[in-house]
Write a structure and sequence with these properties.
12% of the residues lie in helices and 30% in strands. The chain is an alpha+beta fold. The protein has one domain: Umud Fragment, subunit A (Ribbon). The strands form 2 sheets. A 6-stranded antiparallel β-sheet has the order 1-10-2-3-8-9. It has a 4-stranded antiparallel β-sheet with strand order 6-5-4-7. A hairpin with a 2-residue loop joins β4 (74-78) and β5 (81-85). The longest helix has 13 residues, at 39-51. The protein is globular and about 50 Å long. The N and C termini lie close together (12 Å).
Length: 174
């Protein structure tokens, strides 16, 4: 979860109109690389997580990540920082310059001369009309668009609107 401790709890607005999502928004979505669980398994998992405060139950097939690039944008990665080019724009800007939200990211320190998988670089790619680019704020330990590519809008199930646990994070998402 972006910048939040394990076990954080959120209020999520469902369903979400993906046309209203902005760069920097936190979204809840179904993972694109897992088969979805059956309805009975999802219900049992949700009920058991609710009554045990998330300590038991079937693991969820959903994640929370930050929207970095919108449909039609071109996005590339350099040292775990996204650079985004909006349609019709000439230059790429960093994700921080493009976002309406202020947030921090944690980037890993790689060994000197590291050039290989998981090095935080990705070539430019143009997003299709139904695709979003999402990243976690813990860039070296996040499973996100850097590894599995753009997220289809049909997998987005909600927008995070409030954090209520832990109390030190109580409030609007950051």
């Amino acid at each position: 979860m972006p910048g939040y401790p394990e076990g954080a709890r959120f209020l999520v607005w469902r369903p979400v109109n993906t046309a209203h999502l902005e760069r920097g928004d936190l979204i809840l979505f179904h993972t694109p690389y897992l088969n979805t669980f059956s309805l009975s398994r999802r219900v049992w998992g949700a009920v058991s997580r609710f009554f045990t405060l998330g300590k038991a139950g079937v693991p969820s097939d959903q994640m929370i990540k930050r929207v970095i690039a919108l449909p039609g944008d071109s996005v590339q990665m350099n040292q775990f920082i996204a650079q985004v080019q909006s349609p019709g724009e000439e230059f790429y800007l960093t994700e921080f310059e493009m976002s309406q939200s202020a947030y921090d990211v944690q980037t890993p320190s790689l060994p000197e001369g590291w050039d290989g998988p998981l090095d935080g670089h990705a070539d430019a790619q143009m997003l299709e009309p139904d695709e979003f680019y999402v990243l976690g704020d813990h860039r070296g330990a996040s499973c996100d668009s850097l590894y599995w590519g753009p997220l289809e809008s049909s997998l987005i199930s909600g927008k995070v609107v409030f954090c209520y646990w832990p109390l030190k994070n109580f409030g609007l998402p950051r």
